[in-house]
Amino acid sequence: RYKNWRKSAADLIPDILSQLGLKEPLVGPLEVTTEFVVTCPKTTRLDYPKGDLDNFLKTVWDSMSGLLFTDDNVITTAHATKRWADKGEDGYIDITVEEVMT
Q: What are the pLDDT digits (tens) for 45-97?
């Protein structure tokens, strides 16, 4: 699943960056806020999505490395959440990246 997700992300990210007008990867330092909204299965006893939040982040950051930013080592501040999507809502990932002024 990880390899399939990375492939899908690698196909989508360049188009998204082009739409944003980003021609070169950001060099940092960067602050990244990420919200994972996960489609809820029909039945679950869990109050929140299964899986370690750091693994969610690693997958996304690895996919964006070299495209959105030069490498994920330029991220100096991170904020992340995960939650179930509301009933009828599709899952998605919302990412905000800001350059940190030094």
A: 999 999 899 999 998 998 889 889 999 999 999 999 999 999 889 999 999 99
Q: Are 88 and 42 in contact (CB under 8 A)?
A: no
Residue with tokens 């950051």: 61
Q: Are 36 and 86 in contact (CB under 8 A)?
A: no
| Spatial separation of the C-alpha atoms in residues 80 and 37, rounded to whole Å | 11
User: Which tokens is 77 given?
Assistant: 């501040």
- Residue count of the chain: 102
Residue 8 gets the label, from left (phi > 0), alpha (psi -120 to 50) or beta, of: alpha
